[in-house]
Amino acid sequence: MTSNVKILTIPLSGSCAIVSENFGSQFQTYCSGSSISPLFVLGDAVELLNSLPSESIDCCMTSPPYWGKREYEAGGIGLEKDFQDYINNLCAVFAEVKRVLKSTGSFWLNIGDSYANKQLLGIPWRVAIALTDSQGWTLRNSAIWNKVKGGPDRAKDRLRNIHEHVFHFVKSPKGYYYNEDAIRSTPGKAKVVNGAIVSATGVTGIRYQRQIELSTELTETEKTNARAALEAMLQEIKNGNLADFRMIIRGQQRTTHSNSTSVSGRAKELKEKGFYFLKYHPKGSKPSDVWEILPEDSQKRKVHFAPYPVDLCKIPISATCPPNGIVLDPFAGTGTTMVAARLQMKKSIGIDICRRYLEVAQERSETIL
């Protein structure tokens, strides 16, 4: 796709580079160098990825063109007449992504849906199922990107669409890199009030103590054990080993998830001991699988009208790309993934078939010091 396109290769020791030939050797040079400036590559994703060695990429984060949504410069995926051809073309790229991804790596896919003949096609899940069933990927999470506010919708017979999927795939269900501490929220702090330990949300233990004393379902032995366990839990709060906790007491609080002891370990513990605790990590809670992130403002965009926001890349790259890792985006567009990677001081490679998009991506990345 790039045989008749001449692109100036900027020295890798300098700022961002755009290359169009000898990608394999350029990749090796880039990997062994110290620069974290992104490497942008012009050409077809399948052909270019085929020149990379297997097990060479730590993390892939991408948002490919959506089917039938826009006419992107330089054409490419997304303009197929049949959505099944679109899915097949995407899967061909992702098969190469799987090959170049390390066994410890992760693949994050942001993809939106499309309509045909007034029918919502379910393209994100069609792609996800094709990847798990045909290519052997393991799907670890399906996160929802809630855009909070969406663009105007002229349809008068359906709801407005303001969400997209972000899928997290791995090559193997165990052994992949995942730093959960890197994405935890900052926890509230416990404090001492009138000599009593108070958790970040105001738990003092007094209510639980009273419930234990007044319980008609706990035996005296169970009450003694519950009081001792509660004191130990409050001490953990005082020592900073926990941010918060909840105590579930038989007959007082509803069992979480299920009352069946055959399917719920919590229910079994409640039956056997009379109580159990829900502990909150001292480093804060992990993000949920619903992310409220505003879309990037595209009103001032003159080149690419569907950029996804840098904030959408923060959790994936923080959690699944090690400090010295390399991030890949086979549909780089205007370089959002690379911007996010560089902000985290990580190497990145962006591939796209449109030279103009890559030039914009290069300009964006060079503004980051």
Any key phrases for this structure?
21% strand; Rossmann fold; nine-stranded mixed β-sheet; alpha/beta; 2 domains; 369 residues; 10 helices; disordered N terminus; two-stranded antiparallel sheet
Brief rundown of the structure:
The chain has 369 residues and is α/β, with parallel strands linked by helices. The chain has helices at 23-32, 45-49, 83-100, 123-134, 206-214, 220-238, 265-273, 311-320, 336-343, 355-366; strands at 17-19, 39-42, 57-62, 101-111, 115-116, 119-120, 138-146, 163-170, 191-193, 196-198, 244-249, 275-280, 290-292, 326-329, 347-352.
CATH superfamily of the largest domain: Vaccinia Virus protein VP39
By CATH, the architecture of the largest domain is named 3-Layer(aba) Sandwich
Helix content: 25-40%
Rg estimate, integer Å: 25 Å
**Residue runs with pLDDT of under 50 for 5 or more positions:** 1-15
Arithmetic mean pLDDT: 86
Number of strands: 15
> What is the H/E string?
EHEHEHEEEHEEEEHHEHEEHEHEH
Overall, the morphology is elongated
Distance between the termini: 33 Å
Summing up helix and strand content along with how strands pair, one would put the structural category as alpha/beta
Number of domains: 2
| Strand line-up in the sheet with most strands | 1-2-15-14-3-4-8-7-13
CATH class category name of the largest domain: Alpha Beta
Note the main sheet: 9 strands, mixed
Could you name the CATH topology of the largest domain? Rossmann fold
The DSSP helix count reads 10
Q: Approximately what portion of the residues adopt beta-strand conformation?
A: 15-25%
